[in-house]
Amino acid sequence: MRAPRRRDNQRVPGIYISWPFCAQKCTYCNFASGVQPKELEAQYGETLRAEFAAYEWQFTPDTLYIGGGTPSAIEPEDLVRLLEPLPGRPWREATMEAAPGSLSAPKIEAWLRAGINRVSLGVQSFVKAELARTGRKHDAGTVERDAALLRAHGMDNINLDLISGLPGQTEASWRESLEGVLRLEVPHVSVYMLEVDDDSRLGSEIILGGKRYGAFDVPTEDRIASFYEQAVETLEAHGLHRYEISNFARPGAESIHNLKYWRREPYIGFGADAHSFDGTARWQNFETAREYVERAPAFRSEQTAADAVEEKFFVGLRLTEGVAPNASDWQRFGHAFDRFLSTGVMERSGERLRLTPRGIMVSNEIFQEFIA
Question: What H or E segment, with its residue span, contains residue 206?
């Protein structure tokens, strides 16, 4: 099945590639990824190339993002061959997600040849005991060596991910992780509060009231929120400004690709469970790697029309810049705007509305107001 022709010719789309293969499944992970047979991985790469070939390219993408899973585990020359047919090189921004400890000089050199110019390291914590309970095998020294190796090859555009709310996390250990980030002086940091749902082993265990995976030792919601607020204060004080609820950057280092999601700009997803948006409709590929391979060339599982007005707010309000409502928006949501403004969870900035720091902490409740 060919993907539809793009309907929005005014904005340049990004490309997202899903690589759902990992050496181990982390306890907190709720993505459609995991440890899978090597033969499936080889078939998956061929299916991705088939999906690239089937797509009717009506545009030249300016961003690329390879997520997972652990795409940094792809063999160097396999990655070069995988990305070779994609248009747009050199991309304005091309990000590779990487697991600490999976980097090497040959890999980074191949990434550069393939057009990668940004790396996102899934650090999650700088505390060995916290990492061990999630199934991660790296430590702070691993992250420091990886950052040094990237910079030695001229790859300075680095993001580090952290999670507030891991089992056993304390104020002292969270401060240790924040200090680890600051020590490396990276231009971009992502801070995610632990998600509790039944799509992860840890989340399921918490919901069921069990003790495995450290579920009994997960901080309370209030403490997780406190850790997040501490991160905001610390990062802002060191020049890393929050531009989206979970993302902080030095001026000019914001993720160009990820901003497309929050500004409702088109992006095309390839691979298992990849999502796409052409400005009018959204569609999703088959969720698992095996189904994606076996159902090819019918890569897509479903398509839905996008409600531009709803999405404008429950996606756009994630950004610090906020959203500029028009007259029609005020007619539809004015009662909600007035309530949020009066209760202090939303504020005006010129013609724009944006969440206040207090509003960010209850953002999920606010976003529900804009979903029919």
Answer: helix 201-208
Count other Cβ atoms within 10 Å, centred on residue 333.
Answer: 19
For residue 58, is it left (φ>0), alpha (ψ between -120 and 50) or beta? Answer: alpha
195: nearest Cα among 229, 217, 163, 227 = 163
Q: What pLDDT digit, counting tens, does each position of 125-183 carry?
A: 999 999 988 878 899 999 999 999 999 999 999 999 999 999 999 999 999 999 999 99
Please give the Cα distance from 170 to 152 (Å, whole number).
34
At 118, list the tokens. Answer: 């940004």
Residue 343's closest CA among 330, 358, 331? 358
SS (H, E, C) 268-290: EEECCCCEEECCCEEEEECCCHH
Residues 6+ apart with CB under 8 A from 200: 27, 28, 29, 30
The whole-angstrom distance between residue 289's C-alpha and the CA centroid of its chain comes to 19
Confirm if 94 and 134 have CB atoms less than 8 A apart: no
Helices 221-237 and 171-184 cross at an angle (nearest 10°) of 30
Structure tokens at 257: 């690709």
Q: What is the pLDDT of residues 282-317, one digit of tens each?
A: 999 999 999 999 999 999 887 888 889 899 999 999
Instruction: Give the three-class secondary structure for 130.
Output: helix
8 A C-beta contact, residue 117 and residue 91:
yes
Residue 45 carries which side chain, given as an amino acid letter? G
Q: Which two tokens mark 346?
A: 């939303």
Domains of the chain: 14-262 (3.30.750.200), 308-372 (no CATH)
Render the burial of 203-237: b for 16+ CB within 10 Å, e for the rest. bbbbeeeeeebbbeebbeeebbbebbebbbebbee
Amino acid letter, 316: G
Instruction: Give the number of other Cβ atoms within 10 Å of residue 136's Cβ.
Output: 23
Label residue 73 exposed, middle or buried (CB < 10 Å: 0-12, 13-18, 19+): middle
Instruction: Quote the CA–CA distance of 29 and 72 in Å, as a whole number.
Output: 17
- CA–CA distance, 301 with 273 (Å, rounded to integer): 9
Q: What are the distances in angstroms from CA 130 to CA 140, 157, 282? A: 11, 26, 37
